[in-house]
């Protein structure tokens, strides 16, 4: 129960930071996606189910406050958390390279889904412009923020939430 309360407040704080503080440091109207970093981090550290629920509630907050279609962002963030949870058993979460790579992949897929379902269906076919001006800068900015924020999420996960696995449970440790 304690871990769910801590996760709830972490989602709220990340949403508030993404809505307020991160807009102040945006470069060319590109802001990093802190909620996506949280979904990927929880999927990596706690597994598919936790990544799925974290993504669902992060996306639900975005849908409630900013979305035009209810459930659109909830579905995208939910898939991002769930897919990143597949690396839970093969990755020991002290290293920063895998979260950075997985965040870049998930941010690319997130932006591609947003383009396909919000712009392409309305007849806007400028994928090259969208790719070079929106997707690539946001990926770099989000990966840069991942280097900073992932350690905070790792600390929160192991000090305030009940850990879901130990090093001996990793598949890389010989038994």
Please provide a brief summary of the model.
With 175 residues, the protein is mainly α. It is built from 6 helices and no strands.
Helix count equals: 6
The helix/strand series, from N terminus to C terminus, equals HHHHHH
Characterize the largest beta sheet: strand count, sense, and whether it forms a barrel.
none
| Mean model confidence by pLDDT | 88
Report, as a whole number of angstroms, the end-to-end distance.
32 Å
> Segments where pLDDT lies below 50 for 5+ residues?
none
Q: How much helix is in the residues?
A: over 70%
Structural shape: globular
Q: What is the second-level CATH architecture?
A: Orthogonal Bundle
Helix/strand layout:
Blueprint: H1 2-24, H2 34-46, H3 48-65, H4 72-84, H5 97-119, H6 127-160
Helix pairs in contact: 1-3, 2-3, 2-4, 2-5, 2-6, 3-4, 4-5, 5-6
Protein architecture, described:
- Its main location: membrane.
- The longest helix is centred in the last third of the chain and has 34 residues.
- The protein has one domain: Arp2/3 complex 21 kDa subunit ARPC3 (Orthogonal Bundle), CATH 1.10.1760.
- The two termini are 32 Å apart.
- The protein is mainly alpha-helical and 175 residues long.
- Helices cover 71% and strands 0% of the residues.
List keywords for this structure.
mainly alpha, globular, 175 residues, 6 helices, Arp2/3 complex 21 kDa subunit ARPC3
């Amino acid at each position: 129960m304690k871990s769910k309360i801590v996760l709830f407040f972490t989602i709220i704080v990340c949403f508030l930071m993404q809505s307020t503080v991160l807009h102040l440091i945006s470069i060319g109207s590109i802001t990093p996606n802190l909620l996506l970093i949280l979904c990927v981090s929880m999927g990596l550290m706690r597994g598919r189910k936790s990544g799925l629920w974290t993504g669902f509630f992060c996306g639900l907050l975005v849908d409630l406050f900013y979305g035009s279609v209810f459930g659109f962002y909830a579905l995208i963030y939910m898939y991002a958390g769930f897919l990143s949870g597949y690396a839970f058993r093969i990755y020991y979460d002290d290293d920063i390279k895998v979260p950075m790579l997985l965040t870049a992949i998930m941010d690319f897929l997130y932006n591609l889904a947003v383009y396909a379902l919000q712009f392409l269906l309305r007849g806007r076919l400028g994928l090259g412009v969208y790719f070079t001006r929106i997707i690539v800068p946001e990926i770099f900015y989000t990966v840069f923020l991942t280097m900073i924020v992932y350690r905070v999420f790792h600390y929160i996960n192991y000090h305030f939430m009940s850990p879901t696995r130990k090093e001996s449970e990793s598949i890389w440790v010989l038994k």
